[in-house]
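Bumping with the actual sequence this time:
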Amino acid sequence: MTEPLIVKKSEARENDTKESDLQKSYSEQGYAFPFDILSAEETAHFSAQLAQLETQIDDKTAGYKQQLNYPHVIFKFANQLVRHPKILQHVTQLLGPDVLVWGATFFIKEPHTENYVSWHQDLKYWGLNNDDGQVSAWLALGEVNQENGCMQFIPGSHKGPMLEHIDTPVENNVLSRGQEAQFSSADKEVMHVELAPGQVSFHHGKLLHSSAPNRSNQRRIGLAINYISTSTKQNLVEQDFAMLVAGEDNYHHFTHVPAPQQDLSDDAITWHQRIINAQSKVIYK
């Protein structure tokens, strides 16, 4: 007979404090970090999985350059990560018990490269109807610091207006349209989101954020996961896709995507391409 899990009162109070801090920081600043998710062994395992499967990627997984879009649809290990119970524990505190993954991306910066992400607000381009019905988690699979191009946030900018963005497509801008918010960061406080391997940050889709080039000798790898509440709708296209990872979906605003049964299977690749096509329409609309 399995022994019941006993949580000490001190541990329960610590967990409650962490979740309270998460909600307060997220509400006031638009972000919260760092939170420990993966052990050193888990981080090494998932990093090795990514490195191995990167060698198998070809043109049929469109969208891979400095980023690999929707890896949770085609890779079993990435699907495990977006469903990680420690991440979902925090996400459900922000969104409620019923949660979908709308998107996920491996953002990879090679050593001594000029790739960067311009200042932008995600929700400007996502077509979602509820600003507060989403949260992005950014999971570090290695050391992430200022030298290798960590994310940068403008605290509290999620409370302000949605800014005008212009498309400035240049070779080294990782964003699909080279989208850039029209404002000056010179007089703004900038928070540098440094993370240890296995840690995660959370940020609001309206928060101004960016990242600089990798000036270091190490590869910078992060998995960004875009979670939405099941009540959230897509306003810009008739059909959009998402994967249920917590609770139940009583709204059915999105077509449900199945978890991959094996890496890069034909079925998974078909789903992947359907999502690429639909969400490209959203972003470029």
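The tokens above came from a reply further down the thread. Residues 1-13, 62-66 have pLDDT under 50 and may be disordered.
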